[in-house]
Write a structure and sequence with these properties.
- With 277 residues, the chain is α/β, with parallel strands linked by helices.
- It contains 8 helices and 9 strands.
- A 7-stranded parallel β-sheet has the order 3-2-1-4-6-7-8, with helices on both faces. A two-stranded antiparallel sheet has the order 5-9.
- The radius of gyration is 18 Å and the shape is globular.
Length: 277
């Protein structure tokens, strides 16, 4: 999808953080940014920021974990201008802490939003993408989808699941003759959105700027790249995991700080409540 001008791009979790940065980047390239979020105040802030910069934007209040709400927003989007060309599944939450210290409902909420929400939104909007001359699906996963993450076990495992879902859909679309629909799975390390305040990026790396990451995602859509892995340590992690014996890989992950990075997590605004991407 070389030319993004005029494309209709839906970004979930677009009220703040990486979602807001993604919506801004697509709008700056001539797209209409269709921004969805459960937080109406944050959603309006994103819409105002894009509009003030001269971009085209339409906000939609939506809980990705509510299948009826997702379907209703799809119908509304169609009424407002037709099907979308690009879907970005970005909405997500994280609850850090020891597994038994975090209430069960928060673990289940992590899966409901991070994984099941992406499945529900994709199921609703993939028919739109298939009917377009060219289209793209983006799933925002995480580097933690390649390595275990103590004190963030359900967050990491939700992203493991999202990586598997995303790559399976990519291959299924190709087998079904829908090669015009590209799929990109994004696996970054920590991003400076406040979501992971207190967590320590692995050795030799630093937390990523959301605008810089959003630009990489837009470039991947334009070039039809299947993965965005960043920074450099993330790029080599899948190979290291496949080549090294488990004890050696575990030791290397501890040495780089990859599996101890969440010990000091406090999240945006402190340790209580969900942290939205």
């Amino acid at each position: 999808m070389r030319d993004l001008a005029g494309k209709r791009v839906l970004v979930t979790g677009g009220g703040c953080g990486l979602g807001r940065a993604l919506a801004r980047q697509f709008a700056a390239r001539g797209c209409r940014a269709l921004v969805a979020d459960i937080d109406v105040a944050a959603l309006e802030g994103t819409a105002a920021a894009i509009a003030s910069a001269g971009g085209r934007v339409t906000p939609y209040a939506m809980d990705v974990g509510d299948e009826r709400a997702v379907g209703a927003v799809r119908d509304q989007i169609h009424d407002d201008g037709g099907p979308i060309d690009v879907l970005v599944n970005n909405a997500g939450v994280v609850f850090g802490g020891g597994f038994l210290d975090v209430p069960l409902d928060r673990h289940l909420e992590t899966y409901r939003v991070n994984l099941l929400g992406a499945v529900a939104v994709t199921h609703a909007f993939l028919p739109d993408l298939v009917t377009r001359p060219e289209a793209h699906l983006v799933n925002i996963a995480s580097a933690s989808g390649f390595v275990g993450l103590p004190y963030g076990s359900t967050y990491a495992s939700s992203k493991w699941g999202l990586i598997g879902f995303s790559d399976s859909i990519r291959l299924e679309l190709a087998l079904a003759g829908h090669g015009h629909v590209g799929v990109t799975t994004v696996c970054p390390s920590y991003v400076t959105t406040g979501l992971f305040d207190g967590a320590r990026p692995p050795w030799t790396t630093r937390a990523l700027d959301p605008d810089r990451l959003a630009a990489l995602v837009v470039r991947a859509v334009r070039r039809n790249r299947p993965f965005v892995l960043t920074p450099w340590l993330v790029k080599i992690t899948p190979a290291l995991r496949g080549l090294l014996p488990v004890p050696l890989f575990d030791a290397l992950a501890r040495l780089t700080g990859a599996t101890t990075s969440m010990r000091t997590w406090r999240g945006r605004g402190g340790a209580a409540g969900p942290r939205r991407l």
